[in-house]
Design brief:
65 residues; alpha+beta; 3-stranded antiparallel sheet; globular
């Protein structure tokens, strides 16, 4: 999987709209305040870092359009 076209497109969108390429999920929806490490990468990818292999985390996914 090559993310280069996606990154280029999203970086261009961010520059043209004076917005960030990455931003915390709670900026989009405050119900994500309890997942402080999760963030959006562009408009379509959500990143949830898993810091502990032994621990199971519950991941919230926002509703689609």
């Amino acid at each position: 999987m090559n993310l280069s076209p996606y990154i280029f497109r999203e970086a261009k969108y961010s520059v043209e709209n004076s917005g960030p390429l990455t931003y915390p999920t709670w900026l989009e929806n405050f119900t994500f305040y309890d997942q402080p490490l999760s963030y959006f990468f562009g408009r379509d990818i959500i990143v949830f870092p898993m810091l502990d292999k032994e621990k199971e985390d519950r991941i919230k996914i926002p509703k689609g359009e």
